[in-house]
Amino acid sequence: MSHEIELRRSRVKWAIAALGLFLEAYLLPSSVRAADPPFVIGVIVDMGGVYASNGGPGAVVAARMAVEDFGGTVLGRRIEILSADYQNKAEIASATVRKWFDVDKADMVIESTDSAAALAIQKIGQEKGKITISAGSASDRLTNEGCSPYGIHYVYDTYSLATGTARALVPKGEKTWYFIGADYAFGHALESETAATVQQLGGQVLGVSWHPLSTSDFATYLLAAQASHAQVVALANS
């Protein structure tokens, strides 16, 4: 957890610095600066579900530590942190972020969520002209069809995961694949990208099993993978 907190701490510090320059250059007239409103950052995470250890309370702690490291202000404005648990539901993420932008006057939202929620958050940021940072989700839709001039995809994506893995294995003879994937945006993107690369390299996909988010019993899916006699059982989940 300490490494995860330090990583997210550095991300938020970078984000504060970058966004401060952006606001100073483009968004804040001098009259607004003079009013000295707080600079509000929303941190939306999974607090108790399957992704709680990949962000969760640690991401909120990291954001607060980053603000403290940064000195607590940007452009003379006190930095304020909001946080919320989106419960792995895109509709809760959307409602929370809309409230932060419309009611709480948030300047930026940073997420550690699943890709479905991240795509919804980035779309809202584009509508509102507000910065959103995807720091946990991986779907390459965030930088392809869902791309936003206000959206920043900070970490890995499904394209890099897929092509790196498939190009390492298929040329070594691991040519038949079976996928076990999470049945939402991230899982489908990772399976699709990897399958395309496998096939491009002359490999074959023998099948795929989709499981709901938060599944803990994989016996049925593993039996299906075993029955396929695939050389590779690829997990398109996290």
List the helices and strands and how they pair.
Layout: H1 2-27, H2 30-35, E1 39-45, H3 56-70, E2 73-74, E3 77-85, H4 90-102, E4 108-112, H5 115-128, E5 131-134, E6 151-153, H6 158-169, E7 176-182, H7 185-200, E8 204-211, H8 219-228, E9 232-236
Helix pairs in contact: 1-3, 4-5, 6-7
Question: What key phrases describe this protein's structure?
Answer:
2 domains; alpha/beta; three-stranded parallel β-sheet; six-stranded mixed β-sheet; 238 residues; Rossmann fold; 9 strands
Task: Describe the protein in words.
This protein has 238 residues and is of the alpha/beta class. It has 2 domains: 2-153, Response regulator (Rossmann fold, 3-Layer(aba) Sandwich), CATH 3.40.50; 158-236, Rossmann fold, CATH 3.40.50. It contains 8 helices and 9 strands. The chain has helices at 2-27, 30-35, 56-70, 90-102, 115-128, 158-169, 185-200, 219-228, and strands at 39-45, 73-74, 77-85, 108-112, 131-134, 151-153, 176-182, 204-211, 232-236. The strands form 2 sheets. It has a 6-stranded mixed beta sheet, with helices on both faces. A 3-stranded parallel beta sheet has the order 8-7-9, with helices on both faces. Strand 4 (108-112), helix 5 (115-128) and strand 5 form a beta-alpha-beta unit. Helix 1 crosses helix 3 (56-70), helix 4 (90-102) runs parallel beside helix 5 (115-128) and helix 6 (158-169) runs parallel beside helix 7 (185-200). The relative contact order is 0.12. The mean pLDDT is 88.
